[in-house]
Amino acid sequence: MKRRMINSLLGVVLVVVVVFCVPLALVEKRTIVNSARDRVDATAVRVLALVESRINANEAVNGHSFESQVTDGSYVEVQLPGQDVVSAGERPAGNQLLKAAERGSSGAIVTVEQSREDVDHEVANMLLLLGVVALLAIQAAVALAVRQAKRLARPLTDLAETAERLGSGDPRPRDRRYGVPELDRVAEVLDTSAERIARMLTAERRLAADASHQLRTPLTALSMRLEEITAVAEDPETVKEEATIALQQVERLTDVVQRLLTTQRDPRSPTAVAFDLDEVIKQQVEEWGPTLREKGRLLSLEGLHGVTVVGTPGTVAQVLATLIENSLMHGAGTITLRVRPSGTSVVVEVQDQGQGVPPDLGNRVFERAVSGRNSTGIGLAVARDLAEADGGRLELLSLRPPVFALFLGRSHAE
Q1: Looking at the domain assignment, is residue 14 inside a domain?
Q2: Residues of the chain with pLDDT > 90: what percent?
């Protein structure tokens, strides 16, 4: 590219030099020649005037009479009627001479001859000067072309490196501008694309982390149900009951995946419906009962019953499962699910008898990668996102004892 730019600019300059210098050289040459001829004609006129004045004054005419008008390289010859030819200067050699002849009223004829050597020398100097100017112009053009080529090639190299970094998975924008509108526009588009790719990669990583975390609990519960089926394979009624619960877990897995994908595409997707909150709480009790019994802990229910709320059952179940799992992992004692009214909302509180949330964490427990017990720090952050996407909200009401509250809209049909 650099070579092409240099060759292009150099070709333009050469054309300009030829178009400009050739006509100028011709005009200057003609001007020099015409100027020399005018000088010869002027010399002939002056000599004739001197000769005429001496003839009119009856004075003798000789070479000394007009010798002062003869310049170097010129030859003047005067022909007088009835007299010998009078001359001054040295006759120039060669065939190409500048000549001028003037006839006076007395019959005198003045002839001036001058060699073209001085004229040719002046023309040669003029051509040399034009050649030097043309050469300097070409050199300046080459320097300018090299500079411009580097100025334009460097940004293109940077842009190519940026595009290559984007292709290799490094979406950091470079925020470089080069003072060339077209290149700056390309750089701006690449930076915008880099930011968009970075957001997409972040969203994909977040989705993968959320999915792995949120699917862990249903998979664990499903595994437990399958183990129960294996253990009681000889009791058809128990197998049927456990298989039904396992199918519910599969449905929940499907719902979790669908919810994650829907939230990823549109965090405000309007899928809320009115549903019976007791059904979701009953599902959680059945799901977590065996695990809590193995840990020697209890799940207690308090507060309202038969409450209809607005939201998505799968999302509410997922948020409550996250809160129960959080209490199971980080808390102690009995886990209490308390349902109470709060204005136009219904609040589902999850409380345990553990040490609670450290004061230095506070509401930071809902931030990603924030955890006080060496966990992933994703669960509560995902739970809050799910609650907000479903039209509710998740808050930490108390540090000790730890009380997490899920606020849901109350159905007006009650």
Answers
A1: yes
A2: 14
